[in-house]
């Protein structure tokens, strides 16, 4: 869901080595980072270390860390955000700004139930400032939509309307697009930015909708417009998927390799798939990706099933394992990309996937989902 909230669900984590690595000498390079912490941020962290109870400083530090985690896909920044919030991490009546950031850390770690619980408790407070209430409503709506709980998400977006008209309109349009009203939703989103220059976040929402509607020309153009935004890793991965699905692996490979965050797992996975499609040697990148997924699973068991399923399906050629992992993922998150992955895995698994395919079709018909990708894979998903 691409609204004005700071989305932390879509950038995959970077490498965590399976075994400790000890450099041979102090001059040996361990890892090249795609970004640097600037002097102002270092000073902020130092000041917070001297006095951890400074709430405004802690909030600024945690917010900046969450931003970097989203933009660069670096899970270490989630730890930095939690550390900044340490004095309020388990405090039931913590200040609202700390609770909002606490929920976002949990959300980024795919701990969706605890994140929702934080937001619901926060929304029950009567003293919330309007902007805090608006952000809590938007974040909670995004979490419900992530799990295909569309009625719950819609109710929250409707509450948001008097507080933040633009994100509420985008939220409701997105929900309409998932309820059989894709064309009308696209027209609504187009009206939200009538100027010459389209906001990258809006271009990304419209690109994803265009892809679901099967608009072959509009979708890639919108994705490229969205590359100017802060969700660069996620956008590149989405556009790379669009190219890979059309056997345009050479373009996808160039796209991911040119990213300043080319080492992010989301992009490394697409690099591996593109190399395989091109018939080129992908052994080193494949081994690296396999190690990263194993490390992520040790760190957060069961929380990275989407990436694991994609790897098993498109890289390891293990359809039954891909189906198992896609089912685990579907139980946790139910975005359109998750439905496509589950259907692909079910079809690849043959008879073993028949029951899953039928159940998925039943569930999505009940919700009124429209997705050209699903219909192209299986005509039973056609509207």
Automatic annotation (TrEMBL):
Species annotation: Roseateles saccharophilus (Pseudomonas saccharophila)
Position of the signal peptide: 1-18
Keywords assigned: Signal
Signal recorded as keyword: yes
Protein name: Uncharacterized protein
Source species, domain of life: Bacteria
């Amino acid at each position: 869901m691409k609204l004005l909230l700071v989305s932390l669900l879509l950038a995959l984590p970077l490498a965590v080595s399976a075994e400790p690595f000890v450099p041979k000498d102090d001059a040996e390079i361990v890892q090249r980072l795609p970004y640097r912490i600037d002097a102002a941020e270092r000073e902020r962290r130092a000041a917070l270390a001297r006095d951890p109870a400074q709430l405004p400083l802690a909030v600024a530090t945690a917010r900046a860390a969450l931003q970097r985690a989203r933009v660069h896909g670096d899970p270490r920044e989630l730890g930095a955000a939690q550390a900044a919030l340490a004095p309020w991490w388990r405090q039931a009546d913590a200040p609202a700004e700390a609770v909002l950031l606490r929920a976002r850390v949990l959300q980024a770690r795919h701990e969706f139930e605890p994140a929702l619980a934080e937001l619901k408790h926060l929304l029950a407070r009567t003293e919330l400032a309007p902007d805090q209430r608006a952000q809590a409503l938007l974040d909670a709506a995004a979490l419900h939509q992530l799990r295909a709980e569309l009625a719950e998400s819609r109710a929250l977006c409707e509450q948001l309307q008097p507080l933040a008209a633009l994100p509420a309109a985008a939220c409701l349009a997105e929900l309409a697009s998932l309820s059989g009203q894709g064309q009308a939703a696209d027209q609504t989103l187009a009206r939200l930015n009538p100027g010459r220059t389209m906001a990258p976040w809006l271009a990304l929402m419209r690109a994803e909708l265009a892809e679901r509607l099967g608009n072959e020309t509009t979708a890639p153009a919108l994705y490229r417009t969205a590359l100017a935004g802060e969700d660069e890793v996620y956008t590149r991965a989405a556009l790379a998927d669009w190219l890979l699905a059309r056997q345009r692996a050479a373009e996808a490979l160039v796209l991911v390799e040119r990213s300043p965050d080319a080492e992010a797992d989301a992009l490394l996975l697409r690099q591996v798939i593109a190399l395989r499609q091109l018939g080129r040697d992908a052994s080193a990148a494949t081994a690296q990706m396999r190690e990263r997924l194993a490390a992520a699973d040790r760190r957060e068991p069961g929380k990275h099933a989407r990436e694991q399923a994609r790897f098993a399906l498109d890289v390891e050629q293990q359809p039954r394992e891909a189906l198992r992992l896609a089912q685990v993922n579907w139980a946790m998150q139910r975005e359109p990309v998750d439905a496509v992955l589950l259907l692909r895995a079910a079809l690849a698994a043959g008879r073993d996937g028949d029951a899953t395919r039928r159940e998925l079709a039943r569930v999505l018909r009940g919700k009124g989902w429209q997705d050209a990708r699903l219909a192209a894979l299986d005509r039973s998903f056609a509207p």
